[in-house]
Amino acid sequence: MSAAGTRPAPDGPAPDGPAADGSANRAAPGPDRAQYGLAAFLALVGVLTLVDSAGLRPGFADQVVQPSAFGYVIGAALVLLAVLLAVATARGDRAEGEAGEDVDLTQRTDWRTLAGLAGVLVATVALLDRLGWAIVGALLFAGAATVLGNRHWVRNLLIGAVLSVASWYGFYVGLGIPIPAGVLDGIL
Amino acid sequence: MDALLTGFELALTPENLLYAVVGVLLGTAVGVLPGIGPAMTVALLLPVTYNVSPSAALIMFAGIYYGGMYGGSTTSILLNTPGESSSVITALEGNKMAKAGRAAQALATAAIGSFVAGTISTVLLVALAPTVADWVVVLGAPSYFALMVLALIAVTSVLGSSKLRGFISLALGLTIGLVGTATGQARLTFGNPLLADGIDIVVVAVAIFAVGEALWVAAHLRRRPLEIIPVGRPWMDRADWRRSWKPWLRGTAYGFPFGALPAGGAEMPTFLSYITERRLAGKHKAEFGKGAIEGVAGPEAANNASAAGTLVPLLAIGLPTTATAAVILAAMQGYGLQPGPQLFEAEPELVWTLLASLFVANTLLLVINLPMAPLWAKLLRIPRPYLYAGILFFAVLGAYSVNFQWFDVALLGLFGALGFAMRRFGLPVLPLIVGVILGPRLEEQLGQALQLSQGDVSALWGEPVAVVVYALIAVLLLGPLVLRLIPGRQGPERLEDRVDELEEEVRR
Amino acid sequence: MTVVVGWTPDARGYAALVRGAREARAHGEDLLVVNATTGTAAVDDRFAAASDVTEVRSLLASLGIEAEVRQPVVRDVTEALLGVTEEVDASVLVIGIRHRSPVGKLIMGSTAQRILLDARCPVLAVKADDSPR
Q: What distance in Å separates the CA atoms of residue A117 and residue B227, rounded to the nearest whole number?
């Protein structure tokens, strides 16, 4: 792909190439370093799968395909793909983010909004069993809308409350699925 | 034929008709709304399958699928922001037409073309699917195993720009499919009893399609508003009809076979249709690039025909080839239905009701959408904080409703992060979902095949169909390599590059 | 000194624009036309299309007014407008307002009211039906 191909490719998630390499054409961005992280993640999942498969007991006596067989194949494939990805990255392969109607890839990643949304989701998980869906759902909607840039948090809370109570009754009456009511047990 | 008539009877009951209307409306709405597609919508609606009859749910999902295709064309024409790769081509001429004051005609030829293509393709589907099912039902486990491998390889290596990334996505999906209990032993559960039954496909699908997408968009939100072209009720005059009907038929001829192939998808047929129409345009050739109606009629028909085409492998063999088809397959499995040849024998009523309702949905789309185009454009004024907060809200509700455990919501968050990372690193989503769904079935078929042969591996290529399928796989994988090795010949161009070139050429 | 106009491509926006142009010409000042959006929706009817902007530019040029049109994408339209008046040390800020029922005002709040309360420069509020004489 680029001149970097002449260099022996490092195997595994290796540090980036010599700094002199990129100096010839400053305009072209260096390797997509985050991709080494992805490769490391793939290798980790692959090794975990292999270890897990090795820990399985053999299946029934007449079973031809052992329970561990697929795990071995997939785990090995993951490790191999991780190596290939690391090599490709070192040779200048860059990831192309997914485009979309609402996506503007020319701007930087908005980590603040992302962190806010992650916080809202974590809070949802933490509170869900304690407070019940009707309350947590409202907080989830209001929190997410506020993080995403709508500052009318009172209005957001109201809409969230309407949505979550309506969805609770929708499941209960429409689908016949009783969602646990949590602290509002007896009120809803 | 009798079966189809019975199907119509059942499809036209008030309850099923209502679900068809809801599906079509919802599908068009999400097709118009930026950031939401039919796959995400069907995934978010998977919880309704817990208590709605299978036929009603499938009718609604089919309506969403068809409606989403149509809604996407509306935004391509009015806003010039093709959300899905299949409507990139529509935007080329459609938006030019709209800018020249012919938005109403562009929308009309898209809607009527979709109807024509959808109806013809559904007729083909009705004729073909049972035949294919009859043919597949006699196949043994080895052939079935080979077909599934073909489907996995096809969605992984034919679509998308990078095979490496396709296979990474597939491997991750297969790993997720491993989680759970196999022959009494827990695999990849890390001793957690909550994982013993495996990870629910609802959680994975909702996380990857809805949460991952919402996070990805939130991190890269396009802030500058888009210019929308005002439009009234779509209509066409006699000259437009005369110029449109042939492209509709040709587009259908391209779309259906491509959709029906395991390596389906709508990009290729829309592209081919556009090229063909430009070549055949005759005296209207100069209009291409400035808003030629043929360039909207053909690709739009191809687009919808391929959507119907993907239902052939889905219903007759049980192989999904698009993201939406994959989620519909997950819904069917949730009902304990196994799509494929057995379905036609075990649940003929369900299958024929579904097929009949496709005709109904198609007609509804035309009747509802032609007068409602201006209304759909209004949806674009919904503030996005509410839109994406709503997606997260329904995603969490969907995951929570699986077992009413916080654990599933935590998994939703984790896989949502994976969905975000996949979009960041350009990993295609489809191979992962197909891997999660087909992985366990692949293992089952392999087990059956080898059980019968008592461990003799050669049984895997013991059936002629299996041999043919393996040959096809070899062609798929090695074909591009061989072509590149032939001296004096350039490697096959990527479809994306060619579409980009075409865009450059037209936009100049 | 500069006349700042809060402009939207609708009746009251044009009323404000016309009034602002007259002010600028009468006092020989520059004109700064601001059309801000928060960009929360994919389509914002109050954000002018490129063709509208071109039209306004040529209209003002034909009147012999030195005008600049800005279309910032901001977190808060009111704040952005007030920020611009301070940045250019505006002599007057012209805005278009519409009639609102008391209930409507209660629910939606009022951009105009916030501008009137927070602005540091004089504010000229024009009504849309106040057609230029």
A: 29
